[in-house]
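quick one
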Amino acid sequence: MCGIIAYIGHRDATPLVLNGLKRLEYRGYDSSGIAVLNGNLQLLKRKGKIKDLELALEGTHMPGKVSIGHTRWATHGEPNDINAHPHISSDGKIAMVHNGIIENYDVIRKELLTKGYTLESETDTEVLLKFIESIKQENHFDLEEAVRIALKWVVGTYVIVLIDQERPNTLIAARKGSPLVVGIGDDEYFMASDALPIVDHTRDVVYINDYELVIIEEGELILKNLGNERKTPLIEKLDLEIAAIEKGGYEHFMLKEIYQQPDTIRDCFRGRITEESSSIQIRGIEDHLDKFVSARRIIMIGCGTSWHASLVAEYIFEDLCRIPVEVDYASEFRYRNPILDSNDIIFAISQSGETADTIVALEKAKEQNAFLFGIVNVVGSSISRITHAGTYTHSGPEIGVASTKAFTGQLAVLYMIALKVGLEKQLLSQKKYSELLSQLQSVPKKIETIFETQINNISSIAEKYCQSQNCLYLGRGYQFPIALEGALKLKEISYIHAEGYPAAEMKHGPIALIEDNVPVIFIALKNDECYEKIMSNIQEIKARRGKVIGIITEGDSRTKKILDEYIEIPECDPVISPLLTVVPLQFLAYYMGTKKGIDVDKPRNLAKSVTVE
Ligand code: M6R
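structure w/ 5-amino-5-deoxy-1-O-phosphono-D-mannitol:
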């Protein structure tokens, strides 16, 4: 989604902001722009990629030490140069970038038109800027005051950053519902939607909260609430290496991130599974163990891939902890009037920790006194701060739009929590607990075996089927959510229509789609309790001349015989197996997408961090 970067200091701001925009590219965008103060207010915007903006900048001199930049993911108005940010006030003196959605923009727009304002773009952002300008002019306020008053009228979400020709040494920003981080350097400040453009310059950051206003003026950072009261900024240290946000020799971030999984899973276990592998210690859980043990119900919420992790968790927690689990799309949960109380635990699962649907769902649950637990990858993100407790997945920055290592990180955390609670509730014997724990710890090695033995095979399968128009993904039990995840990955980065189903549901409808050009991907593990039934489901497809690709247990010669293609994975306890079965499906999607020539890191229309509802 939209990305913001701003700079104020002693350096040439334009190249710095441009590089910041490149760091934000992964969030997904369709146009970009920069404004700089240098006595005048200079502006440059382009539809398309950052390189289009960069090309335009080559022939433009834009000096200045104060600048704002933006990558736009269109909401109001198509992607073009005019709708791109920054937007400029009617008097040409103020520039503003915005991330979020102003829900009452139409009412404000009509009021502005009545007052004689003209609007160049179709955006809610220009409406907000001119609303601020009208308040400033009509009341003879300075910009800061006008921003504060305007935001009291605004319904929706925003991060805004403004520069003003009349206050040439000032950056003003405010936040509600979209992320904003301020970086503090030597006599210079940065503002950005996330820490990635900041880590190149400094590790000292302040995470801005909702309803806060930041003014950086004459080298000082002033933090206020919308009531104009000063607050003390909390300076935190970024724990992020620059190498972690670069491709490191891989063709795509997605490929790098798939290959990182043995290490990211090990990192997730590190310090949590004790050296002698006898116990699990997770701080976020230790402090609230009694709540987990006595929980009446767990409700898992998330979106996309994180929702799939929640679905796997439903099986895990019901099996190992005997706690009833409900799983809901965060976007649906919020609007279905849920019935909650303090005995319910809400798990919010999110890679970015900034997904607007998940955040509003949490706010709803908080109102009803539920205990909120976050499983989040991005340290310091909004969800990590609004939940009562939580655990980081420690998967490192995930740049590819298609979530891969974050998903296995989420599962790794969920397994550890379920094992811990299951043991504490005495539902798991010490023997079973130790067996599962050791299976869990063997996962990274087994993923490495998949890397060593299956990559060429998966790439050839992708070559054969990448021109397909439709695909079906089928699995049962623990593999059903993995079928959904495999189908989502394929859709996102190859633009092939794919559906995931529980294998048994096939005969209730999807079987009508079967013909010889519709590949069906089955997850059919030998030690699955439904193995025989899955074999019958495969036969049903074969009888209709469908092509079947199987994810199977290494050495399972019986299944191999009836398949058109197969990908073997090492044997694993069925409970833990989703951590393995998802890996070949990630590769399959990756190769199908790249063989079609798609930029899998930035597939069309998608955003990495979905900060609007
Ligand atoms: O950051 P989150 O985990 O909350 O994001 C949720 C979804 O937007 C995300 O998983 C999305 O579906 C990915 N593109 C999947 O690959």
